[in-house]
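ok trying this again, last paste got cut off
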Amino acid sequence: MAMGMKRLAPASLLIAALTLAGCQTDYEDMTAAQHAAYSRTGNLYTYKPDPNAPVQVTYRIDEHRFVTLENYDRCYGDNYYNDTQRGIHEKIWTGEPTDYRGRLVIADPSGMNVVLPTARNSLCGDRGCTNLFAYSTDSGRTFRWLDYMKYSFRPSEDSEKFTIAAANDGIYVFQKRVYGGDYTVSKYPLMSGIDLSRPYPAGVHDESFMASKRPDVLPSLHTPSGQDHYTCDASLRAPNLTTPQ
């Protein structure tokens, strides 16, 4: 009995430490000891991404540009940006695309500007979580990251208030107000090589306004395919995986 308690103690301490820290560790980032600890304590981490899972298109811009989910289990996996005309297949993040519940619009006709919002769906700790979007100004060859929401204790649910759009002149972040039905809008400038987390070039700046003051902006932004949310079929699984009970 004492020996059994000693064997369980390290695993219990590991789980407690991760839980108190308010974090969710990606499966691919875990050490062998963490894998074993989670396995022994049972189902605190249940996703086991599989490279044999069928590739899903989770967001389509047009015939040759789209986002795919690969190496996944029940919609948790690796998210790639694809442009078949330019030969781009770039991994952007690991997670569930549909954790971001807001609207997504990619409306730059040149194909240079791309934005891919994400949202956390995990414990957040005392200060809440930060949600980020990935953005590109070179047609998806490279991406940088910027936060669009901070200090949320329900980051996935709260993302439903957002519409995030890439246009030819920048990224528009629309956030629905709690009362009144209007949106606050933050516009971030996009140009080749710009880093939105650092000082901008001279004469370049952000904009903030209420959507009701510029009512033509949001209706003018459309993804060519018409899609405006990520989608994922959680029932699709690799042939060698059985559905958990």
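PB: full thing came through this time. The two ends are 30 Å apart (CA to CA).
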